[in-house]
Design brief:
182 residues; binds fe (ii) ion
Length: 182
């Protein structure tokens, strides 16, 4: 018997939930790639540039995969992409302008928010979406590795770390809610 028949009132149908999932993940990886682009615009001559480029390349791989998936599954990308481009780049450039450690603090905050987000999605997917679930699990591991790189490069020693981290995480959660729907 189909699970949808027993849906609670107000619950989202599974196909809608899956489209939201792919839309927000595509938007998130797009934003992540833009954040690193913003950081590299400021820090391209810094000794942190190679590690930033490495993380940026991985975000690009994540983005490419979601770009394929949204085409394949006929999911409309979020209408907010141009906005996330500007916001992501600005967040990256501004934190980098505050210093290398602030840039790393930005990475840690973003990746912690994304880790929680992917964990929720992975838990929500059934076995009929095991391939997607494995993709998300792999990307989540990459994001956790990025967080660890941020911590190794002095994120927590950034001036105003706790406030900076709280503001960025809140922004990420807001961006997630918006990109699921719009
Ligand atoms: Fe990513
Ligand atoms: Fe990442």
């Amino acid at each position: 018997m189909s699970g949808t028949r027993h849906r609670l009132p107000g619950a989202v149908p599974p196909d809608v939930a899956l489209r939201r999932m792919l839309r927000v993940d595509h938007a998130g990886e797009y934003g992540a790639a833009c954040i690193y682009a913003g950081q590299l615009a400021v820090l391209r001559r810094s000794d942190k540039a190679p590690v930033l480029r490495e993380m940026q390349a991985q975000e690009q791989q994540h983005l490419d995969r979601f770009a394929e998936l949204i085409v394949h599954r006929r999911v409309r990308p979020t209408a907010m992409l141009p906005f996330w481009h500007a916001a992501g780049f600005a967040l990256g450039a501004m934190t980098a302008a505050l210093g290398e450690r602030a840039a790393m603090a930005c990475t840690v905050a973003v990746e912690e928010a994304i880790d929680a987000h992917y964990a929720t999605q992975i838990a929500a997917l059934d076995d009929d979406e095991h391939e997607l679930r494995e993709t998300l699990a792999r990307f989540r591991d990459d994001e956790l590795a990025h967080r660890d790189i941020g911590l190794q490069h002095g994120a927590e020693q950034a001036p105003g770390y706790r406030l900076l981290s709280a503001v960025i995480k809140r922004g990420c959660r807001m961006a997630i809610r918006i990109s699921e729907r719009i």
